[in-house]
Design goal:
By secondary structure, the chain is mainly beta. The protein is built from three helices and nine strands. A hairpin with a 5-residue loop joins strand 4 (about 75-80) and strand 5. The longest helix is centred in the first third of the chain and has 6 residues, at about 5-10. It starts with a helix and ends in an 11-residue tail after the last helix.
Length: about 150
């Protein structure tokens, strides 16, 4: 099999065999389906939350976002999904569009959390738009049930 064929089939990535370029990269996240708005722009942001920081208030992105936790742990919650903790080395993604992103804060009270996120955005829309209290109330039925423990 040629080196290109091996790469095209996803083999060798992170494996032991083959040329060094096929061992240098490791797939850490794949996401589908998602839509890239026509004429989208992209932005990669490095976020650092101090211990216990709740992060960005509820918001949405108009295109997909893909993230990687570098250090610490992120408290992550999207509309319709249960809250989860993503630790260093973990990834997250959100589809963008109308979905509300409720949480992205530091899950740790004693250490900083850092993550990198690449966001794609529709032309003429902000990269991030906060959601007001009235909309949160109207869409409360779409939020996953939260534990009371």
């Amino acid at each position: 099999m040629s080196e290109n064929a091996q790469h095209d089939q996803g083999q060798g990535t992170g494996g032991q065999d083959g040329p060094s370029w096929t061992r240098a990269a490791k797939v850490i996240q794949e996401a589908s389906p998602f839509t890239v708005p026509e004429g989208a722009s992209a932005m990669t942001v490095y976020v650092q939350w101090e211990p216990g920081d709740p992060g960005t208030p509820p918001h949405r992105h108009y295109g997909p976002a893909f993230g990687y936790v570098v250090k610490g742990a992120v408290r992550f919650e999207l509309e319709g999904e249960p809250e989860r903790i993503i630790e260093a080395g973990g990834t997250f993604w959100e589809p963008g569009g109308d979905v509300i992103h409720y949480q992205d804060g530091n899950a740790l009270t004693d250490a900083r959390t850092e993550f990198v996120v690449t966001m794609l955005c529709a032309p003429g829309k902000p990269m991030l738009e906060l959601v007001d209290e009235e909309e949160l109330k109207q869409r409360a039925h779409l939020r996953a049930q939260r534990s009371t423990v």
